[in-house]
Amino acid sequence: MNNIEKLVRKNVQTLVPYQSARRLGGTGNTWLNANEFPVPVLFNLLHQQMNRYPECQPRLMIERYAKYAHLDSNQILATRGADEAIELIMKTFCDPGKDLILFCPPTYGMYKVSAETIGINYITVPTVDNWKLNLTAIAKNLDNVKVIYICNPNNPTGNIVDLQDIYYLLDITYGRAIIVVDEAYIEFCIKANLVKLLKNYKHLIILRTLSKAFALAGLRCGFILADNKIINLLLKVITPYPIAIPVSDIATQALSQKNIILMHNNVKQLNKNKEWFTQQLRKCHCVEKVFLSESNYVLVRFKNSSKVFENLCDQGIILRDQNNNLGLSQCLRISIGTLKECEYVISALKDLSQESI
């Protein structure tokens, strides 16, 4: 058989893959399209021997994250970034062709892509004014829904979901579905974290990552926070060795008390950069609106986003185009960089504002 495509599952044949920042590519020296932390935190490998398989769940790393999250170790599961966790939850709780997941666009694209890859159908309930959850519509669409994904702060909009809305969702889904709150960016607004709810809501799962505030996107290390019964179910499905030795080595170092303090200080500086950057963006003629953000990026609506995107790209500034996302016409997402990078972007936008746009 010469046509390999005939052997591929039908849902994969029609799958539109998630366009990660690196997959999209581009050439530049100011990368503000992937919500990465703009400066590295350096570590040295302490464990050099790689001839043995790693622990499935490295004990010290799990203990340190549990301490950081104020939970017990048996409430933590480490994964290859939050992306593996998103898929692992579907594999554990959803029967393909029968069960559904639900999410609320505009939001993180991997909920949709993971569902399509596995063969799980999904329901979308678009957000309403200022990206609030449409609770009435969600309540009407719960039949056969096993998992609901809520990104908080939401990517790419940057807003925080109202706590009372979370309580409502948890109440109406009790005994019916799992609520997954994706807190990939929570360190930038740590007071909004929902860990305290795990005690009373056993069907709540929280996702975390070291990719953002901990400046370890290249490490690919995430965590699932949940009731111990859920953790044990997920352990039945997860791959045998999800966390490589170098990953657990560096992650364990990053979760030391000294490096957690360093992370918090870095976040404070980045939030200061964001405040300055947001103020300056509002002064640019080519900007129509800057949306409030509780994360390490800002969503900006421009008068002509394509021209801005292309012009800045020509100057080596790489942003993330959001035009194809629901309700985000003329919007670009800009990761917060160093103060020097932020100044460079503002300078380029002011120059562009002098032109007819």
TrEMBL record:
Q: Name one GO biological process term.
A: L-histidine biosynthetic process
**Keyword annotations of the record:** Amino-acid biosynthesis, Aminotransferase, Histidine biosynthesis, Pyridoxal phosphate, Transferase
Source organism:
Candidatus Pantoea edessiphila
Q: Which HAMAP family does the annotation name? A: HisC_aminotrans_2
Q: Give the protein name, as stated in the record.
A: Histidinol-phosphate aminotransferase
Alphabetical list of PANTHER family matching this protein: HISTIDINOL-PHOSPHATE AMINOTRANSFERASE (PTHR42885:SF2), HISTIDINOL-PHOSPHATE AMINOTRANSFERASE-RELATED (PTHR42885)
Tell me which InterPro entries the record gives. Aminotrans_II_pyridoxalP_BS (IPR001917), Aminotransferase_I/II_large (IPR004839), HisP_aminotrans (IPR005861), PyrdxlP-dep_Trfase (IPR015424), PyrdxlP-dep_Trfase_major (IPR015421), PyrdxlP-dep_Trfase_small (IPR015422)
Q: Which Gene3D superfamilies match?
A: Aspartate Aminotransferase, domain 1, Type I PLP-dependent aspartate aminotransferase-like (Major domain)
UniProt pathway: Amino-acid biosynthesis; L-histidine biosynthesis; L-histidine from 5-phospho-alpha-D-ribose 1-diphosphate: step 7/9
